[in-house]
Structures are given as structure tokens and as C-alpha cells.
Automatic annotation (TrEMBL), chains A, B:
Protein name: Helix-turn-helix transcriptional regulator
Pfam assignment, any one: HTH_20
InterPro entries (UniProt xref): ArsR-like_HTH, HTH_ArsR_DNA-bd_dom, WH-like_DNA-bd_sf, WH_DNA-bd_sf
SMART domains, per database record: HTH_ARSR
Ranges of residues in domain HTH arsR-type: 3-96
CDD domains noted in UniProt: HTH_ARSR
Amino acid sequence: MLHPEREQIILEDVLAALGQPVRLGVVRRLSSGEEKFCGEVVQDVPKSTMTHHWRILREAGVIHQRPEGRKLFVSLRREDLDARFPGLLDLVLRAR
Amino acid sequence: MLHPEREQIILEDVLAALGQPVRLGVVRRLSSGEEKFCGEVVQDVPKSTMTHHWRILREAGVIHQRPEGRKLFVSLRREDLDARFPGLLDLVLRAR
């Protein structure tokens, strides 16, 4: 399960990851910072579609995924994103 | 040639349009605000590929294209983007 290091996070990848309604919705639902069970973040999207979206978000450095038993937990990499691109996440979360 | 109205510009579309190296490069080269001839903004990308990238940028509301004779001119929709998503463009142009 690939997670780029903070220094490897690339602006284009983050923008592309955020630039899709389901993925932006996920990021909004994770914005409290709390780790959540993947199945509780999204309920109405087919599992195979979500596997794709989780991968895009994870490989861009936007989220962190952690397996525990049979479950997969997910959290927003807010500290890393704020360090790499100060203000970006806040701006995107605020915008409508 | 579709140009969305300011109010129709959608965050996800703008992020997706900016989230690609060639397109982000174009936006950086247009950041002075000056209108430029399309062929002068990008030289090393195949024309059919650029037609695709121009369309993505234009339909997202990031650029404005204007035909004049056989030439196509392009400019950044900075005022519209700043009005819709204050700070986003500056932040993206500043980030490395």
C-alpha cells in the first residue's frame, strides 16, 4: 500500500485527486481529522469504484489508509498537506 | 466554443484542470494576465494533445480562447477565478 513521503507529494497529483466530486466529498467528510472506517465514509458508491478513488487519493498523498484485521481505516494527511501546500486544503474545504 | 459563465465555474473542474503538468504549466505561463497566441504558450506538445488540454482548461473556466483570423488567442480568467475561489490561483501559482 503506497503512501508517498511528505516531500514526495506533488501539487498536480493533489489537485487531480481533489478534482472529482466523490473524492472531494470524501476529503470533506475526513476534514475533522478523525480516522474513520472506509465503509463509514462512503456508502452509496460501488466498492470497486471506491477502491479506485481510495488509490488515487492515497497515491497523491491526500489520505492515509491503515488495515486492521479485515477493515481498512482512513484519515486525511492534513499535517503533510498543510506543510507542503499551506492553505490549499483549507481553501478547498471552504469553497463551494 | 464553450466558456462557462463565472457562476457556472465548478471547483472540482478547476482542480482537475489544474491537476496536470502541461495544463498547470500553461496556467503559469499565462499568469501575467496578458493574452497570448496559443502557439506561443506551448511549443513542445503535439497539436492534438494541446487541443484536448485547451478544451479541459476552457470548459473548466480557467482560460478564455478567442479566434482571430486563423489564430487562436488565449488568456487566464483570473478575475473570474479570483471571484469564485479567492486565493486559489495565487496559492497554486506560488506552490512548488
